[in-house]
Design goal:
By secondary structure, the chain is mostly helical. It is built from 11 helices and 2 strands. The protein has one domain. The chain has a two-stranded antiparallel sheet.
């Protein structure tokens, strides 16, 4: 069999194989001794694997991200190691103790058993998390303040494993950390959350893979790079107000709510030629500016509107 045929065939097989392997790695990774020396090491392994895939399967519209590499490293460190912990530290006292102080009783379920057996909680958590993140993501595109935070994630000029975590920490926390804090307070079994969380994290990294890999039928179930590139397209597809393909894990929410977009030509999915901010904002390589500008804290006159803050035309 010609080498070219093997390469083309592997483009469709590599994603489900690696996803399954990394899911197992994610579940058991935290239990290994190495995790105490380097926390979240398996997340770093997955990102590294995506970078390798990007070298093996070169994407024809690829754009170099070397000029913003330091920004990518800083943003990844903050959102992988700090944002979720800080979110829990700030929200848990408020959500757990204040309602009890005002009502005199517990607002949330007292024990995981009340929510059903483990085998039921796992798919339920997957559905709740993916549903929450779909609508939070849509809100981050339609609300002016949330878009100001989220828009820096859309300024990247290409999807890469290295810029998966390039988001303002508040933006990232709202979409990724908040729902797990709430699930823990509701009373879901910690084991069910542990089993579910890796799948939600892995899907986000896979969707940012910059390699020319194919999702095939998986495009209509999971958020693959082919699906997610249209969400990051510099030109919003015709007929849609803000963007398309808001799902983080699953694309069936977009299909259900009418926001799915993946045009086909000659049996292959078409891809946008250019990735970038739909309003024309330039990619921001200064991480401090990325943190402060959306909060109007950058520059001597923070109350003045700054270029690039505008929402894409409706």
């Amino acid at each position: 069999m010609p080498a070219k045929t093997l390469v083309e065939g592997s483009k469709s097989l590599i994603m489900p194989v690696l996803f399954a392997g990394f899911y197992v790695l994610g579940i058991f990774g935290a239990s290994y001794a190495a995790d105490h020396r380097l926390p979240k090491w398996y997340t770093l392994v997955i990102i590294g694997s995506m970078i390798v895939l990007e070298r093996l399967y070169t994407y024809r519209y690829a754009v170099s991200q070397k000029p913003v590499l330091m920004r990518d490293i800083l943003a990844s460190f903050v959102n992988i190691y700090l944002t979720a912990a800080v979110t829990g530290f700030l929200l848990l006292p408020v959500l757990a103790f204040l309602p009890q102080s005002f009502t005199g009783g517990k607002v949330f379920f007292a024990s995981p058993e009340q929510l059903g057996p483990l085998w039921l909680q796992v798919p339920l958590i997957l559905l709740i998390v993916s549903f929450f993140r779909y609508w939070m993501h849509r809100w981050q595109h339609s609300n002016e303040f949330l878009w100001r935070l989220h828009s820096y994630h859309h300024a990247v000029t290409d999807l890469k494993g290295s810029n998966t975590y390039v988001s303002h920490p508040i933006d990232w926390a709202l979409r990724n950390a908040l729902v797990f804090v709430l699930l823990g307070l509701v009373g879901f079994d910690a084991r069910a959350i542990l089993i579910t969380a890796p799948a939600t994290a892995i899907s986000g990294i896979f969707s940012h893979c910059g390699g020319d890999v194919r999702g095939g039928i998986l495009n209509y179930l999971l958020v693959t790079p082919e699906v997610h590139r249209w969400h990051h397209a510099a030109a919003v597809p015709e007929g849609h107000k803000y963007s398309v393909n808001y799902g983080v894990e699953f694309s069936f929410w977009d299909i259900l709510f009418g926001t799915f977009h993946l045009p086909q030509k000659d049996g292959q999915s078409e891809q946008p030629v250019r990735i970038g901010h739909p309003g024309g904002m330039a990619d921001e390589g200064n991480y401090l500016r990325l943190l402060l500008k959306p909060l109007r804290l950058w520059g001597p006159l923070p109350v003045i509107a700054l270029p690039g803050d505008q929402h894409p035309a409706e």
